[in-house]
Structures are given as structure tokens and as C-alpha cells.
Amino acid sequence: MLATIALLAALAAPIQDPAPHVSPTAPEQAGAVAEGHDEAGHGAEEEHGFDIMHHIQDSREIETPFGAIHLPAAESWMVGPIDMTPTKHVVFLGLAGFIVVALFLGTAAAARRSGPEGTPKKGHNVMETLVLFLRDQVVMPNIGHGGEKFAPFVITLFFFILVCNLLGLVPWGSSATGNVSVTAALALMSFVVVEIAGMRALGVKGYLGTIVYIPHGLPKPMIPLMVLIMTPVELMGKLTKPFALAIRLFANMTAGHVLLLAIIGLIFVFGNLAIAVAPVLMAVALTFLELFVAFLQAYIFALLTSVFIGLIRHAH
Questions:
Q1: N or C: which end of the chain has fewer CB within 10 A?
Q2: Do 245 and 186 contact (CB within 8 A), yes or no?
Q3: Are 282 and 263 in contact (CB under 8 A)?
């Protein structure tokens, strides 16, 4: 409900017209066109336009109840050829990382205070239940023997993605996982872990067998043809896994926010209080669905990462 109210306030701001519209006289209009046709054409559209994507895409400002916080301009913080200037999504990524670290440190401190025979607090119980569920029901069944070594990585992925998703539902917040660059970076990390896990489990020869596939009993004259055909297919299969991880998370988080903002935008399109009740109710219901999707997408990302690690470690 709070997220819906915040979205209403944020969307209402760009379309307010503080001054009554006065039609210019012919000489004034001609002078305006002569002095700056470009400025009038672009500035008015940017200032008063109803832009849904502005609230979803990355930007150089952070919206707050008290106004926008402007971040440094592009290329303000350069490290060699790399632009390290923070954007809105970078800020929320850092915030998500801080929350995850604080969450785990707080849980560990609560566990130490409770002691072996003490009674843990409710927050500690919730975190312990989630961690044990991910380890026992997601990581170990899909990775198998030795999967406990990958449990910290998969569990961290789950909580980091979950917090990023939930920050997009907080009033004036932003979901960094709605940025394909962020989801691509997360998928790339999973890809590196998967491939290194395969190299360590299978050795050099076994790992190459996951790329250059030669079936047993294949006639020798057919081997070059099989290598020529199957090697690109196997390589493509390796690349489609992180691609699917990145696009699935990005598309689901972006689509939900776009739909939510579009439904709320109907209020301002019709401008009738009686008609506005239906979009508000739909937006509230969709917000609860977005909450479910935030957990679901974090779970799917962690689950598929575990599946990919298990598949390559037990490849034959």
C-alpha cells in the first residue's frame, strides 16, 4: 500500500502544471520559434511529459519525498578509461550489499548471544530457517557430494537478489535488478563459478569433454565431422545458461514495474475519482504479486545456479 501511494505521488509530479496556460499572441509565438525552436520542442516535452520509464531506468538522480538528490555527472569519477561515477542503481546496489552484510552479521551475533542452550530470537529463527532451506533443499540435492562448499555463494546470491528486488517496492526506491547490466554481471559471476567448479571436478581432460563431445564407439572417420558440428553447439549451450539467467531476472522485474506504473497512470489519464478506484485496487493487488515475484526470482536464480554447478560437476 505504501509503495502504491508513493508511486501515485511520484507520477503526479511530472504532470502538474503550476501556472494557467495562456496562448501566446502571434508575434510572441513567431519570436519564440525564431529564437529557439529546439529548446521549446524538447524542453517542454521533457519537463511536462508523462514518462513512465523515467521511474524505472537508471539515472543521475535519486527521488526522495523531499525532492531529488542529484548525483555527480557522468565521467566525474574516472579510473583510467573506466567511468566509476555512481548512478541511482549503483547506489541501491551498495545499499542492498550493506543490508545483506548487516543482516548476516546481526544473525551471527544473535546466534552467539543465544548460546548452545539459549533460546534464539524470532529474527534469528527466520534467517536460520531460510539458510537451512536453501542449503538442504536447493544446494545439496542439485550439486550433490561436496555441495556444501558452494552453499555460501548460492545463499549470498539469493539474499542479495532478494534485497535488490524488494528495494524496488519500497516507496521512492529502485530495483537495480531491473537493469540488464546488473543481471548480466550476476549471471557472469554464476558462469565463472560453474565453469571453475567443472574444471576442478573433472580435470582438464574431463572439462574439455564438455566442449568437444565425442560419443563412445563413434567410427574414426566420423570424429572430425562430429567435432566440427557439436563443438559450436556445446559452446552455445554454455553461453545460453548465463544469458537465460540474466534475461529472466531483468525481464520479470522490469515488466512488473512497468505494468504497475501503467495501471496507476490510468488514474491521471481519466482524471475521474470514480474510475480511479479500480486502478488503485488493481495496483495494490499487483504490488502483492510483485512481492511474491521478488522472492520467486531470487529463488529461481539460486536454484538454476545450483543445477548448473551440479550438471557440470557430474558430466560424463
A1: C
A2: yes
A3: yes
Give the separation between CA 247 and CA 230, rounded to whole angstroms: 25
Please write the tens of the pLDDT for every residue from 32-81: 434 444 443 444 334 434 456 666 788 888 888 888 899 999 888 988 88
Spatial contact of 234 and 211, defined as CB atoms under 8 Å apart: yes
Q: Could you give the CA distance from residue 171 to residue 10 in angstroms, rounded to a whole number?
A: 9
- Cβ 168 vs Cβ 108: under 8 Å: no
What pLDDT is attached to residue 180? 94
Among 216, 207, 215, 214, smallest CA distance to 238 is for 207
pLDDT-based confidence at 109, cuts 50/70/90?
confident
Q: How far is Cα 245 from Cα 109, in angstroms, rounded to an integer? A: 34
Cα–Cα distance for residue pair 216/233, rounded to 1 Å: 18
Question: In the numeric block, which cell numbers belong to residue 50?
Answer: 508523462
The rounded distance, in Å, linking the Cα atoms of 184 and 246 is 5
The tens digit of pLDDT for each residue in 280-296 reads: 888 888 889 999 999 99
Cell of 302: 539460486
Which cell numbers in the block locate residue 37? 525552436
Residues 6 or more apart whose CB falls under 8 angstroms from that of 24 comprise: 32
Compute how many other C-beta atoms are within 10 angstroms of the C-beta atom of residue 153.
18
With cell 536460520, the residue in question is 128
DSSP 218: -
| Backbone φ/ψ region at 144: left (φ over 0), alpha (ψ -120 to 50), beta | left
